[in-house]
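Colleagues,

Please find the record for the three-part complex below.
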Amino acid sequence: MDIVLQQLLNAVALGGTYALLALGLAIVFSVMGLINFAHGELMTATGYGIFFGIAAGFPFILSLGMGVGLAVVLALSMERVAFRPIRRASPTIMLLTSFAVSTILHTLMQNLISARPKPIPIPDMLAGAVTIGAHQIGTIQVLSIVIAAVSLIGLTLFFRATLLGIGMRAAAEDFDVARLMGLNANRVIAVAFAISGVLAGIAGILWLFQRGSVDPLMGFVPVLKAFIAVVLGGMGSLVGAVAGGFILGVVEVLLRAFLPDALISYRDAISLSIVIAILYFYPDGIIPRRENIR
Amino acid sequence: MLEVHDLRVSYGPIQAVRGVSFSVAKGEIVALLGANGAGKSSILKAFMGIAPRSAGRISFAGEAVERADTASIVRRGLTLVPEGRRVFSQLSVLENLKIGAAANRQLRGRTLENCERMYALFPKLAERRDQLAGSLSGGEQQMLAIARALMSEPRMLLLDEPSLGLAPNVVDQIFDFLKALQKQDIALLIVEQNAETALDIAARGLVLAQGRIGKEGASAALRADEELQRLYLGAG
Amino acid sequence: MFRKSLNLGVATLGLAMMLGGPAHAEETFKLGFLGGLTGYLAPYDQPSLDGLTFGVDEINKAGGLQGKYKIELVSRDMRSETAESAVIAQELAGAGVNFLVVPCDVDPAVAAGQISAAAGIPTMSSCASTPTLPGIVGEYMFSNYTADNLQAAALGDYAMKQGYKNAFVMLSKDTPYTQKLPEYFVEVFKKKGGSIAGIIEYKMGQQDFAAEVTKIKGLSPAPDVIMTSAYEPDFPAFIKALRAAGITTPVLGSDGIDSPTTLALGDVAEGVVFTNAGFATEGSALAKFFADYKAAKGKEPETLYVATGYDIVKVLDAAVGASQGKLDGKSLRDAVDGLENVAVATGTMTYKGMNRVPLRTVALNKVTGGARALVELVTPAAADVPAAQ
């Protein structure tokens, strides 16, 4: 029982990080039909932002802010430079463009910064464990859960309570009509990229807390996971992306925790099979983006 | 109010609208009729700046708007109620109304007041203000789509197939309401398959065929035109 | 044909200008390097090339290999793609290189080696550590870097000497390095009388080790030591989760964690012991290499791969000496295969009797106060090294 609860907390912690990443991907997809595979490079940029912040002697917290800031700037620039010119292009062209952006960015990082990982010293206070009742849970795990929860609540407030947020949801559902109502397309898309940058930045921080270093290829695996979460939740559905992220995290951790040793090397195959099975029953994802009744 | 001169719209090599000229006066109701694919929707989209406009002049309230962006057209007082209603189903009724007013900063102070005005016009929406728009019936969604458009305080409303997919009694309700808008000096340009209903409230009609205006005239005259009945208006 | 002779002409002209005398084109040693300068191999092949280039410049200033044979270095980026590796190997073989250095990973090294070695060109992987690599390709293929079984032998020896009896092992079947090195360790440790408390698998890049650590915590009796060849980003994530769970069991790792990240981890990494290719003790060849490098480039190398890349030039120098100046493929191959105790930057290297996988000095390091501290430098007995498999 004890172990089960502990593993569940582990699962929620990982799921939260996936959810943030998936939400970032989904938000951009929902307003312009683009799966931005360069989303992972936003995480990487966060890492370098923090690294150079610390190297320049800024306090840790400020460096974290610089990391997120860099991700937002990069997200806005990739929208302006790479994606705006192809906004009306086919999904395939957009997808290929995002691959190109991703490759260009990590090659630049490899050549201009370093192909080797750069260490990011994490304060020792984040390395310990917190005791909750009879349970011990790593500080980083607790932080992941808290930060993911705060980010998701903050974003929910933004989406519910501000006109810009409501406009983003409207645009996510039906971009053409949102434009028709006079919402500024450039602004909506730029805000979507900015939010995706913030989310990638926060997820990047949580990721970095665990790994302690940044390298040019850091964003590759997480963006794949986020993509799976987005498909699982329903392409373009924001709530679905969050749900997909949590489900993927929980499935992964529980398989790692409770699969017999003989089967453990198949666990990615098993977790993907579970995803496929879910998609078999819910072909449009768990919480699909609802189309209008015509 | 609205003047159109030699409007042409092409999608790539396909010419959807091939030189259309007409005007709509302040507070006037005009029906835009024609078979499927005659170019009706393209004309409305061109007015709103969301169809590729290849040529022609459009002026609204005396100002040229053929190069204006959608937001500024909405701010000038021209709004479209799109075909198929297209309410934001994941947003509540109230949120849908707020989006309708989003284009114009000057209206923001009056948004809640305007919402109350809409609730007074459509009591059903008042009951459901916090429900998701997707949960409304077809007729209620159409009312919401119209209310959403009215939130921008338009001087002219473009309606694309407002009767589509609705039960006859609901259609009557909607058109009664549209007719009532005339009292507020709001001009209407209604695109309809259901010509009878549209001509009932319109003063004039324009009949589009293959991207050009084939016939135009007073509603009564159009209704009496037998050839028209056969060619474009379907049922007699 | 025309292009080739033109190239030769330009090279000759260049050389003539440099020497200010008659051309000696036939005395140039053409060294090919193909590696992943971009892509996933860049962290290894970039520094390897860096060290190689440094060594080439140094030896050319001194007149060339054995003071006579200037090295002409031709390097190509295979973008970490195996197919590209074969294409470039073909190109470089066609360009007539005397010796070819190939990527740091087994698959592209094999792809390149199968072409160059078949053409009779001695070929060496910059830093692939899988000991089966030369056997797969054949007689003309060599390893350079400290092999997995060699590190495992050193780690197993050390664990025994510390009195650890019961070891827990974490491995990943994703790469030979993350799988075989722990398996070699298990072999050595068992052979010397130790027992294995359990083996757990992880997935590279999984980041989150909470589930694995919770499992380790549940072990009874608790193991004396935990061994893994996981590296960044897995190792830092693992050790953080391990220590956060209150598990203080000693941890042994391999050269993959020899990076600034490990040293920057703070308390959680304190006391971790790992093997790598060398340690710069005062007055050692490695210390001299670091100093020379710093004098030339203004900073110390980021990683030991720079030093092991440089080692290749030392091996070539010794080989050309042993072949008495014969630069043909067969003579060079035989010469390298017979080398014994060559002094290189990281210690010594022996190819003789090792099936083209060098016996090298292995350094055991302990993370102490955010720095490496030397535990000892060892050269495992050839008999203690598990057979490559």
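The CA atoms of residues 109 and 177 of chain A lie 40 Å apart.

Comments are welcome before we finalize the supplementary table.
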